[in-house]
Give the backbone structure.
Amino acid sequence: MSNEQKVDCGRRRLVVTTAAVGGVGALTALVPFVSSMLPSERAKAAGAPVEVDISKLEPGQMMTVEWRGKPVWIINRTKDMLETLPKLDEAVSDPKSDKVQQPEYCKNETRSIKPELLVAVGICTHLGCSPSSKFKHGAEEGMGADWLGGFLCPCHGSTFDLAGRVFKNKPAPDNLVIPPHMYLSDTRLIIGKDEKGA
């Protein structure tokens, strides 16, 4: 009887050990499989919000950052630049930004949270070209005499004012896109995230 008990005990240990080793092996095999189904760090970074230091952005200057592979312009508009906007309401195709090209909190005359700071995706809404800045008036920028500053898409001639509103009778159908964003302080903002759920 004691021999049978010894045999059963040995078999039991063998079965338990085999099951444990098999379980560890199965878990080891699952880890790379499950990991491959999760988004990579690169993919996470590509869609992640971008924090920007704007402390050195002087009035009249523009800086460009990348968010989700797109150029995003941040423009510190001067008082003179802002004063051009109401003058152009009749010339732009969507003066009140009725089309959804911006978060609700940027649906205003300046298309921004802070009037002086425009944050816009720098891609033409026609075919995805990148417009050039033409901030100076008229002939100084090689534009018409009535030009008050804005952006020119060199590919097909679409023009936008300093709020990213497209002028009438141009190939681009819509205003420039304003991405969701929020201010963390007077000198820092984050693009791709906001607390208003836009």
The first helix runs from residue 2 to 37. The two ends are 77 Å apart (CA to CA). Helices lie at 2-37, 41-47, 79-84. The chain has a mean pLDDT of 86.
